[in-house]
Amino acid sequence: MTHSPYKLLFVCLGNICRSPSAENLMNHLIEQRGLQNQIVCDSAGTSAYHVGEPPDQRMAAAAAKRGITLKGRARQFQEQDFEAFDLILAMDKENYRNILALDRQGLYRDKVRLMCDFCRHHRDREVPDPYYGGSDGFSYVIDLLLDASEGLLEYVLNTQETIA
Ligand code: 4NP
Predict the structure, then answer these.
(1) How far apart are CA 124 and CA 137, in angstroms?
(2) pLDDT, average across residues 7-11
């Protein structure tokens, strides 16, 4: 029997640093396990500041050091995403609040989680915004997202019985 893929959406403010990194890192882990037909990823920003732009070059450089190419163009989170995705991962608490503010009837609260809920090694509760900082901030984002992505993949595999 075939099932429709499980759909993950990663959300930050601009959709040019943290959420495209999460999307592409997660895709890397999914492809390593040959699960690309069963789990699919996308990303979006709560703001429209950078719509249509490719990922930030500093973020892309930090990802490239770990062998990850950042693909995609920025888009803004929209209400239809609540229906279209199974799980929505907010990078920080402000993103989380801004997403839930669009869920006026509270129908989708359970679909929205903080990305750091899935970290197994880091104690951070949020993925820090690296935009106005130095290169260390970008590599820290990759470290943190790798930890959270590994935990998230285990969570999806443990909770979705049809994915194996
Ligand atoms: P992101 O980073 O939310 O991780 O994509 C940012 C990108 C742009 C801005 C802030 C954060 N900005 O203020 O333009």
Answers:
(1) 14
(2) 99
- Segment 27-40, tens digit of pLDDT: 999 999 999 999 99
Name beta bridge partners: 40.
Answer: 7
Instruction: Return d(Cα 140, Cα 112) in angstroms, integer.
Output: 23
Count of CA atoms in the C-beta half-sphere (13 A) of 48: 1
* Atom in ligand 1 nearest the alpha carbon of residue 16: 5
Q: According to DSSP H, which parts of 65-113 are helical?
A: 81-84, 93-101
Catalytic residues: 12, 18, 129
Instruction: Please give the single-letter amino acid code of residue 24.
Output: N
18-32 helix and 135-159 helix, angle to the nearest 10 degrees: 50
Position in ligand 1 atom list of the atom nearest CA 141:
4
Q: pLDDT of 82-134, one tens digit each? A: 999 999 999 999 999 999 999 999 999 999 999 999 999 999 999 999 999 99
Contact of 143 with 114, CB cutoff 8 Å: no
